[in-house]
Known about the structure:
Layout: H1 5-10, H2 23-37, H3 44-61, H4 70-86, H5 91-107
Amino acid sequence: EFTEESDISEGTCNPGNNPEIDIKETDSILELLRRALQGADFDETKLKVISEELDKVLKEGKLVDWETREPLQAEMKNKTRIILRRSSFPEDARQQVIDNILFIGENGVEI
């Protein structure tokens, strides 16, 4: 579980050891993060930790009819915003991730 800020800053999680993490969806999130950075320098280990946390947010938010329930979508976006801010993800790249995170949740495919 990634509840501590130190998990992000130190990159102490390992997706290979967590059966709840969907590698395909995590890869899609990781690609979204990389595209949002537009080549800016950011620690790859931190990116992987962030993608795993965002994958968890999507999984927890996917309830019945979540695609049409605006409060659930807003909650997932807010959690995404918090994770990105806590992770020191560049402010100018955050909105692109927030705007596209639900697309990955809906399609589960690379963008």
